[in-house]
Amino acid sequence: MSQEGLLRPGIAQLRVLDMDEAVKHYVEYLGLEFVSKEDDGRVYLRAYDEFHRHSVVLREADQAGLDFFAFKADGQEAVDGFRKRIEDFGYTVDDVPAGEMPGTGARIGFTVASGHRIELYADMDLSEDAPETNSPMIWKTMPRGMRAQRMDHCLLYGPNIEEVEKFFTEVLDFHVPERVDMPDGAFAIWMTVSNKAHDIAFVKHDEPGKLHHLAFFLQDWNDIGHAADIMTHYDISRDLGPTRHGITRGQTIYFFDPSGNRNEVFSGGYTAYKDHPTRVWDHNSVGRGIFYYERQLNDAFLSVVT
Amino acid sequence: MADGNEPRVFRIRVRGSDVVASCAETEKALIALEQAVAFPRPLPVNVGCRKGGCGACRVKVLSGDYTTIKMSRAHVTEQEEAEGYALACRIMPLSDMEIEPAFLSPRERMEMRQAQKFAD
């Protein structure tokens, strides 16, 4: 195996204002599977093409946003190794015991310079409804709604993104397929620990710890159109799209969940190998980088976050 | 809605713009404003999630009666709600209304919340 250490995004825990409305949105419209609701009120969801128990966790609160974003490692030894490197970098690491989430092993957590909590873990049970592996059908139960295949990535807003980039690349072994540099320094960075165009991205922002969007992977451009049809029919608030990103080249729609958390449905995107050079956008081209067809940012891109 | 008849319809004005929206008492002010302004002319208030969470359509109500439904306390605190602040996507009119945009940029919101925390 060539990819070692961290493998991929694994868990996103979102705060929602109204659990019933949120579950309707993520299950009926996005098409995630309802896995469980636990005694503490948290709801666990999984996309139909994901193998493990859950990927999206909803927690009811009076402010929307992201509690944490977690990456899955290839073993406990890797997590232990990262703990040492994170502490050597100067961050405090805390422990979340196995079982704090059902079917999930021990996790470690820490706060990066942008104010976001990131977690790492090695173990999660396979889903009882995991995709077949023996002469498999392409799906087990008929996909629903927008037919989200997996929780794909997130874009986070906060300060100190130069330090965030240094931490993710030097300590967590991410690489940077793409970036936007303004005359006064880095404006945005797209980073991956795999060979997807991005597993996590950051935009420079005054307020720490903010969520711009949580993205879900769809099969193709046709499914992006199908998702747009669903948004109009069910009065889901659309932000922008269907369009394409210049950055990552993904096809996309930004829209909102009922709590104001922005979601994205995303398809395509190039393959990013670690030996590829970083693509760099300047301030004159950032509009085309974010929204390739519109070639300009909308107001909400810079101002609406949770 | 009185006696099962048609819902009453009120006018919503936005100070600083010539937009006047007709808004039923069962309808959200933001949606009525969007319907009153032809694309791609910009709206007099910002639009985001349309669901009370993101704060883009934060306004101050200058006059008129209205009801609201649940909105994020990150954007309208209880005290601000008592002072007439609300998210336009959560406002349903009970009379003619005048509102003005009161969007807080992320920096403004951060500084205001820090000042409020300090005052407490």
UniProtKB/TrEMBL annotation, chain A:
EC number: 1.13.11.2
Source organism superkingdom: Bacteria
UniProt keywords, alphabetically: Aromatic hydrocarbons catabolism, Dioxygenase, Iron, Metal-binding, Oxidoreductase, Repeat
Catalytic activity: catechol + O2 = (2Z,4E)-2-hydroxy-6-oxohexa-2,4-dienoate + H(+)
Xref: Pfam families: Diox-like_N, Glyoxalase
Occurrences of domain VOC (ranges): 8-123, 150-268
InterPro entries listed in its UniProt record: Catechol_2-3_dOase, Fosfomycin_Res_Enzymes, Glyas_Bleomycin-R_OHBP_Dase, Glyas_Fos-R_dOase_dom, VOC_core, Xdiol_ring_cleave_dOase_1/2, XylE-like_N
Needed cofactors: Fe(2+)
SUPFAM superfamilies: Glyoxalase/Bleomycin resistance protein/Dihydroxybiphenyl dioxygenase
Family in the record: Belongs to the extradiol ring-cleavage dioxygenase family.
Alphabetized NCBIfam families for the sequence: catechol_2_3 (TIGR03211)
Record note on quaternary structure: Homotetramer.
Annotated protein name in UniProt: Metapyrocatechase
TrEMBL record, chain B:
Species, as recorded: Sinisalibacter aestuarii
Coiled-coil stretches: none
Domain 2Fe-2S ferredoxin-type: 10-105
Record InterPro entries: 2Fe-2S_ferredoxin-like_sf (IPR036010), 2Fe-2S_ferredoxin-type (IPR001041), 2Fe2S_fd_BS (IPR006058), Beta-grasp_dom_sf (IPR012675)
Name this protein carries in UniProt: 2Fe-2S ferredoxin-type domain-containing protein
Pfam family of the protein (one): Fer2
